[in-house]
What we know:
Chain A has strands spanning 5-7, 10-13, 19-24, 31-37, 44-50, 53-56, 65-68, 75-79, 88-95, 105-106, 110-114. By secondary structure, chain A is an all-beta fold.
Amino acid sequence: GAGVSQTPSNKVTEKGKYVELRCDPISGHTALYWYRQSLGQGPEFLIYFQGTGAADDSGLPNDRFFAVRPEGSVSTLKIQRTERGDSAVYLCASSPMGGNNEKLFFGSGTQLSVL
Amino acid sequence: SQQGEEDPQALSIQEGENATMNCSYKTSINNLQWYRQNSGRGLVHLILIRSNEREKHSGRLRVTLDTSKKSSSLLITASRAADTASYFCATPGGTSYGKLTFGQGTILTVHP
């Protein structure tokens, strides 16, 4: 596709449920990033993939959060036993190679609401 | 944690005026980027300035970088109502790859 695609655009779930958020990066981009943004704040880094492997998962808040990118393209962010504090916009971004001087291309995000 | 801090947190101006936003950061960097976000959703890259550059222009945007003061500014000249958005500075996370650390942003409102 022409840009980074995220689905769903909105997800409403109940506390304790499991959710999956999908990201389809720009074709050919080897680097993929997940960020989380709370209202009134800047995006907060969660995890970075280089190809299929998670090169840095230091931003994942706890073991309820997990992400995969099995074929080096589409990525899924998985959240178990959701809590109300998980409510936020989850942003995905990609870049060609993950180099230090590359700009990130962002998707439109998934608004997650945990009731 | 967020490295960058934008100032002001909110800015309200009239169309045609210039808008200046500032960003301060804490650690040494080799580049700094500015992004724009409409309606709290996807961010769009505006400009990247490297540590060996002091000023960079792109259309109506002018970015400066002062590494001795660990600060950057974004100037939007002749603002338009369509410039209304949140603006974020972002710096590399301290490693060799493209992980970025974002500031809290400046909310710019341009009144027609």
